[in-house]
Amino acid sequence: MNQPSRQVPLPRYKARLREGQQIICERFRVDNDARRLLQRRCRLVDDILRDLWHELELPASLALIAVGGYGRGELYPASDIDLLLLLPETPDADLQAQIERLVGFFWDIGLEIGHSVRTLDECLAEAAADVTVRTALIEARLLSGDETLFGEFREHFANALDLPAFFRAKRLEQEERYQRFQETPYSLEPNCKESPGGLRDLQMILWITQAAGYGGHWRELERHGLITREEERRLERCEGFLRRLRIHLHLQLGRREDRLLFDYQTALAGELGFSGSATRRPSEELMQAYYRTAKNVTQLNTILLLNLAAVLLPAVEQTPQPINARFQARGDLLDIVHEAVFDETPGAILESFLLMEQHAELQAMTARTLRALWRANELIDEHFRADAHNRANFLQIFQQPRGLVHELRRMNRLGVLGRYLPNFGQIVGQMQHDLFHVYTVDQHIMQVIRNLRRFTMHEFAHEYPVCSRLISDFERPWLLYIAALFHDIAKGRGGDHSELGTVDAQEFCDRHGLGPEDSELIVWIVRRHLLMSHVAQKQDVSDPDTVAAFAAVVGDERHLTALYLFTVADIRGTSPKVWNAWKGQLLEELYSATRKLLANGGEARPAQGIIEERQQDAMRLLRYFALSDTVHERLWKQLDTVYFLRHSSDEIAWHTRSLHYRIDEHKPVVKARLNAQGVGLEVMVYTHDQPDLFARLVGFFARAGYTILDAKIHTTRHGYALDSFIMQDVSGRDSDREMIGYIEHELAALLLVQRPPEAPASGRVSRQVRHFPIEPSVGIKADDRGARYILSISAADRPGLLYGVAMTLAAHGAQLHTAKISTLGERVEDTFLVSGGDLSESSGRIRLETDLVDQLRI
């Protein structure tokens, strides 16, 4: 078979495609009709492909078939073109060359092609082996070529398709996709196509209904009784919004991108007509509209899957088992006994969720129950909220031993939770711009409750054994869940959300008849929920005065345990990047020290007693290494009270083992070891004190790919710096053990030559910081003794920030004693204990503060 010799006018095709797409996009900007744009682009590409096919004179026995989204007749501005070239038999060399030339022309004119070349048997074999191929072929549409071959393909494919197996595979595929996105549509940068509640949820339903012969449009599903007329309208609205959003995203970027990144949200909001208000940015209005849409989509997806399962996976007919006068069990599904249950008995709304918790055999609700609940949430008014039986049921939902998180999420999806607690309804879909939360406010609250519940489950005891042990002995842990529900409920109102939230929490407790003791604990947690995190991450937990002040606020062990459990769950519920074992260690140390103090009647132990205990424990550790009882004496004589208060017995023993025979060593001593808490490395530096030492160390660690989590800076009586660091690898190497030798050798060599500090390499500032910048703040205040100053900084994180702070401190002659580095997502909140230099005078402190703010703004 010879290739045609005449030239194909590619420039003409290329111009035709470009001009046609430009016209389509311009029309969309005028009429804002997403469906028309998708169809117009599809027709444009159809016509061009057919013309090329005929111009190249492909054999009449072949078939050119559109598959996937293109087969469905929907082409987004930057979507690729999925094609199948169907052959009656394996192609010879000439035909293969013709096909390659055709595909090359497709690319040359500007089409992004995803193509496959298969015979009929190959198609069926691939479809049988891969559900993704099977899905793409369901929407196959003939563009040109042999209609008989295409008809044969459709017939064989339909006969080979196992509908129940296909349904199960797509349902599993959706479950896996949900897991990739943490099973929530409420992340701050969702994927409008793949995230739960995105376009893929709608497409998946239509793939199944097409395969089952129910059609590929919502109106056809309504005719078949799978959805109601109202659900059809709701699906049309949701699909239209998501389509417009994705089209504008493609047009804005000029390429395929489905993530609603912070970079794009403001411009998208303008394109979609969101203008903002006095309290909300346009991007916030856009994202709240997106979250409402996603919530609707996930709910409709659930209803349709239930209806389709009933048709495609019919169970053996079972007689409904009565549960009470309002509900029955249909297999493993909770069902209402008739459609008007909630109209007749509005209190059954909350009862339905309570029953789901109380009956372990129930896995979900029937579609008609979900629909009825959706319609019934408007029955939840002030009269409903004032009903004593409803209030009792709401509290019982929190008191059940299983199912709380699932039912709260279901209540949130159905709008029941926001109707029962109107203040909660105000934070549904509300974004947070604090650079460390990655969820909306309502989703963060759900994550905190989830984390608290996991502490109670034996299968998760290995994750946080201390928390699991503590909550097992905690009386009425459900009070913590109520506190979690209210701890951030006042976000976005302006003012201190902790204080505002206590008003809501107190009102809730009063209305629901909680006793004084329980009400006080809930309200206290809401008011103080940030306290323990603040103390652990910004203050010196080894200082007895810090622990004593914290214990005075906490008051007793029950409040301490409640706050500890809540704080761990709260930090873990902000972002996967925020929690680490180092934060866990700090919180645990503060909890243990405070508990010991409270058990001692709240009387602070004398510092000397604490020091003697740590020294004795360090001596015990030293004996394990066959060291004499006097090995410590020369070193410890050079160390003051502050050193022993700030360092644990294990650190003291490690330093002593490393230094007891080289106390007057002229060369720097650097020792590193794996951190026992599982976070990076511990590094000890012992050298003659020298100017700019901290800046030089910071620069070295940054160049080595580490960030400092904690620093204890100490100067011995004979003029040596004895500095300790906890460091975390931020380079992604996962090679802490291999880095020990490098750090010990290279850092010692650097300190020996005493070169000027070397800045770490500059890096890229994160997108979140660029789009939600925070104003840096610096605070300097005297400590309780008035001899030293506590320096606090808060700023958006960036490469080299700590080095800049260290150089600024050095320029002002400030002596650093401790540094506590706290990174909360994209924000840093660092605390330093400093003295000397310009700090001795008020004017000097003002100059230092001004220079630090300037440095943080760079």
Automatic annotation (TrEMBL):
GO terms for biological process: regulation of nitrogen utilization. It comes from the Bacteria. Keywords: Hydrolase, Magnesium, Multifunctional enzyme, Nucleotidyltransferase, Repeat, Transferase. GO terms for molecular function: [protein-PII] uridylyltransferase activity; phosphoric diester hydrolase activity. Transmembrane segments: none annotated. Residues 323-681 are annotated as: Uridylyl-removing. HAMAP family: PII_uridylyl_transf. This is Bifunctional uridylyltransferase/uridylyl-removing enzyme. It comes from Rhodocyclus tenuis (Rhodospirillum tenue). The gene is glnD.
